[in-house]
Give the backbone structure.
Amino acid sequence: MRKQKTKELDSEQKQLASMVFVASKNAMLITDKDYNVVLVNSAFTEITGYLLKEIIGKNPRVLKSGKHGRQFYKNLWDELLHKDFWQGTIWNRRKNGELYLEWVTIHAVRDEQGQLKYFFAIFSDITHNKALEIEIQQLKNYDPLTQLPNKTFFIEQLKVALANLTGEQKLAVLLLNINRFKKVNDAYGIAYGDSILQITAKRVRKLLRPNIIFVRDYADRYLILMPLVNNYTNVLSVANRILETFKNAFHLNNNQIYLSATIGATITKNKVRDARRLLKQINLALDKAKRDPTVPIAFFDSSMDHLVKHRVDVEADLYQALKRNEFRLHYQPQVDINSKKMTGVEALLRWQHPTKGLLYPGDFIDITFDSGLIIPIGEWVLNTACQQAVLWKKQGLPAFFMAVNVSALQFRQRNFQKVVQDAIHRSGMDPANLELELTEQIVLDDFETAIQMLSTFKELGVRLSLDDFGTGYSSMSYLKKLPIDKLKIDISFIQNITSSKQDLEIVKAIIALARTLKIKVIAEGVETKEQLEILLRLKCNEVQGFYFSQAISADALLKKCKEGCF
Ligand code: C2E
Ligand code: MG
Ligand code: MG
């Protein structure tokens, strides 16, 4: 009786299955183990234009578009045969020659002994799918150096993937950073560094499944999106495989060099469906991994949640701060070491927060960099500083330099030169009194472009200085080529100059370097008489620090100048 029932059910199920096969809006295709087509449904014919009788016994290769390389198919087959499953997008060609993009799932079907019997593919035509139209457009946005897609593309993909997650499904985002890259770039040259970035891109791309998105973020950072993951081990094994590739040496110009990398990763929780939040999480995870060199991979965990929340809150607050006119500039004197006369001031940003009081850059500047808010804020800083210089002149102060900090992001903006030019023109300031403080990062990101940009600033008549010097990977070879007027020795060396012989030697070397290059040198963070005396002996040109003055408001500086303090 029961056997009879089971038989009936079996045949009913088969009937249902074949109805689904016929009626499905998704194209279906079955091949035997030798890849010969056995069966297709009518949706298949609709999409591809091939009738069953035209394609039966043939290899589905007839659909091939020529848009994917050999490696793409190799990866696909490797994975399919290994896991009996593959999912992703493929460009194929209809019978009428037209290209189309399909979203396909392929299963390998095995018998009870595990022998391959069939392949079963189910796909839909997504050429006109709105989200993918964006994808196709963005595909044009490749990073020219590595040929990988760029960050804009990544964010779009991440948004689509997040929107498509259902129920308990999770995705993972990873941030890969090459360790010591800047040192190598500096020691061996930019061309060498570029090759390392290209080789890394190729090596990592090769080991990732085609449906994993891999892009260059910027500099020596890459982003990875795993659209569907089961658990940490999934992600960990991919991360480990990526790090493994760094065990292979980079061979370039007869040099053999070994590098390592660090990864920050995050896996979505049900609650988090916000792409920007995930990007903040991987940055925090990477910071964590960087702090502990014995752990090259770190996951974002909920104990860091408050940090993300803090960043998100501050970012929202910062948007308002500009509108509400809450930013202030304070000015710190720079003093000639011999005459003790003020030669200039550095404009330093402050945030007069309505509830938290006066905030220093340490509390918010990183967030302005991450969010891009430093662009409008930086523009405000430039305009305000230039106007202030003109106002002081009107108030009877002698002319002195106005130094303004410029972040790498501002510098990379195409219209940055115009922003500076406008600030000068609008205020009527003498450009010879404006000094832009740049970081080494600006130069390291793209040396050739940086040199061109810097030269155009020199043509404007503006002075340039290199801030926090000694903390990056500057070398004589590139400093020589930069049209800069001044080196600012980083605070950390000055603070230890009386106790650390090594720091003293570094300061000595920087001063000697500046002298060779015939540029000025200023020491930052001078707090004590002892520090000042050492710097005097070493013939440093200028000093800046609490020993003379903290950064103070424009009015306070005016008052002190009039009192003859500087
Ligand atoms: P920075 O450009 O190297 O500025 C020098 C920092 O050292 C200032 O911190 C200054 O107050 C502090 N300082 C000066 N003398 C002493 C001293 O004797 N002892 C100690 N302990 N500290 C001293 P601040 O104002 O907190 O600024 C920190 C950083 O924030 C700046 O470092 C700069 O990188 C960034 N920053 C400030 N304003 C701006 C801005 O308008 N735009 C950009 N892009 N960055 C800014
Ligand atoms: Mg500075
Ligand atoms: Mg500095």
